[in-house]
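Chain A, query sequence.
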Amino acid sequence: MADLLHVSASPHIRAKADTPYLMKMVLAALAPAATYGVFNFGPRALLVLVISVVSCEVFEVLMNRLMHRPDTVGDYSAFVTGLLLGMNLPASAPWWLPIVGSAFAIIIVKMLFGGLGENIMNPALGARCFLLISFAGLMCDFSVPSGAHLQVVDTVSGATPLAAVKAGESIDLLASFIGYTKGTIGETSALFLLLGGLFLAVMKIIDWRIPVAYIGSFAVFVLIFGGHGFDIYYLACQLCTGGLMLGAWFMATDYVTSPITPMGRIIFGIALGVLTGLFRLFGSSAEGVSYAIIFCNLLVPLIERVTIRKAFGKGGKA
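Chain A, predicted structure.
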């Protein structure tokens, strides 16, 4: 690491903020959307979130002890992973589903790759994709639990606004923007996710380049290939529904699995927008955010290799 900092090109990490501070800021930014999800879906949503967070913390403690590593619960990274995983689950999920997801996120995606800073993909998203493949029926059951504040007339368990948009149906755009609709616990409110993301960007916790390039390139892709021309209503529906805002502001910006160079972050964001557009418009599923981010996580070493400038005196001809 010392050699890298001395001879490689900028950027060099000189931030005073430590990991616990950064994680607590992310938790603060996620709190409004998570709270609104509990308000929408009731006590069942709170149970899913609590089980997910506690499970991630427990698995982190167990793995650190098994691998004879220092305790890392105090850095709050497992808390963030648990909250993000819970927000990516439907409120109707059985109690054991977040436990299985937490085990995959912490044990497989995070700890077996070396712990925080070594994982090659976002742990929460890796777990979500694993659960989607293994328990597709449960992950796509968006029926509203008893005790929920949300009241819907649609009785189809899987009919989310994004699925309705893909099917060519009209949706209540304002309700989708606010979050008064079906979906996973934490993805429904574009409003609160946007506010949380802007808070992180203003506080310089995340780099604005990734979410702006992501959302911007996705919007351009939808306008060109969406089949609706320059229909602003259709574009707004695509932007406000599904996991785009949660993914763009809170998961694509993960420090470990995103590029470190400014140009690399722009390229990363554009790739995310194009892939999400491809998956949403031409894939069999209405959603594509999770798979797009996971795929681009794997491209990060290549993006950094291309965009990191060579240090002076390195790589030139004699």
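Residues 18-307 form a domain with the Ammonium transporter fold fold (CATH 1.10.3430). The longest helix spans residues 43-66.
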